[in-house]
Amino acid sequence: xxxxxxxVLSAAPALLLGAARGAAAQxxxxxxxxxxxxxxxxxxxxxxxxxxxxxxxxxxGGQPFVVENRPGAGTLLAAEAVARAAPDGxxxxxxxxxxxxxxxxxxxxxxxxxxxxxxxxxxxxxxxILVANNxxxxxxxxxxxxxxxxxxxxxxxxxxxIGGINHLSLAIFMQRxxxxxxxxxxxxxxxxxxxLMRGDVNLASDSPFATRGLLEANRIRPVAVTTARRxxxxxxxxxxxEYLPGYDVPFWSGFIAPRATPPxxxxxxxxxxxxxxxxxDVLERLRSFGAEPVGGSRESFQRTIxxxxxxxxxxxxxxxxxxx
Length: 324
What we know:
By secondary structure, this protein is α/β, with parallel strands linked by helices. It folds into 2 domains: 30-126 and 250-319, D-Maltodextrin-Binding Protein, domain 2; 129-242, D-Maltodextrin-Binding Protein, domain 2, CATH 3.40.190. 46% of the residues lie in helices and 18% in strands. The chain is built from 12 helices and 11 strands. It has helices at 3-27, 44-59, 76-84, 97-105, 113-116, 141-150, 165-177, 189-198, 208-216, 263-276, 280-288, 298-319; strands at 33-37, 65-69, 91-96, 117-126, 129-133, 156-159, 182-185, 203-206, 220-225, 251-258, 292-293. The strands form 2 sheets. It has a 6-stranded mixed beta sheet. α2 crosses α10 (263-276). It is globular and about 65 Å long.
């Protein structure tokens, strides 16, 4: 038998396997897909997960993409469930920046997000926002920093939970400015903002979605957003970077899957999400949350996850935030 013929025959099984996987991806999904989210129902991330999942269902033969809320341990419970799931494309996670951060803070977790998950599609990025009680006298970042340096630990700032992006954005703020605040964690957005309105705390770090109605009703006051540029829906609110060059802490969300999920299925999901992000009603909904569509390749999203893992890992080590 010639070398060329042997090469063709030896390659045939791989070619057939590749063709079979491609065909499976074209037929996918043939049954309902679970989309697990680590937040309670009703928040911006939950709403986005449901919006995108319903569009995926419409575009992929009408098979349901069923969103399951599994809050707890800062999205860690949801992430661990997805990491253990069969890597067949029928269990996804609608993840966020917090999904990367939580295992880094929780010493008991063995989860390694870049290793244990495959990126599918990043959907959006948005800032967090620092807001103030209306009676709090300091109105700008420089005024808050000056007050904090004069009275270390006196200013209180609430946030929706230990280990989330809000918590770390505040930790970086303190590190960059050499200040000390008393950080007060709550179990979710609404309890944190209720404490702010009651005057139990001076400031709160939260999302534009959670705070927008209160800002419009003048029940709280905006201070600054955590991204390098101002938000399109809050253009009058300064960015932290205007006072602290290089400060940029965006919040992203998107789909990830168990690591060994077939690439052909991941590629198909990525293409579909890319098209969904172009739909006018989806764009309008995103921007109503203060978010902007991101999209892009699976590879670029995987790099974002890896970069966040390194970046936040260093912050957690420097600030001694690891526990659990």
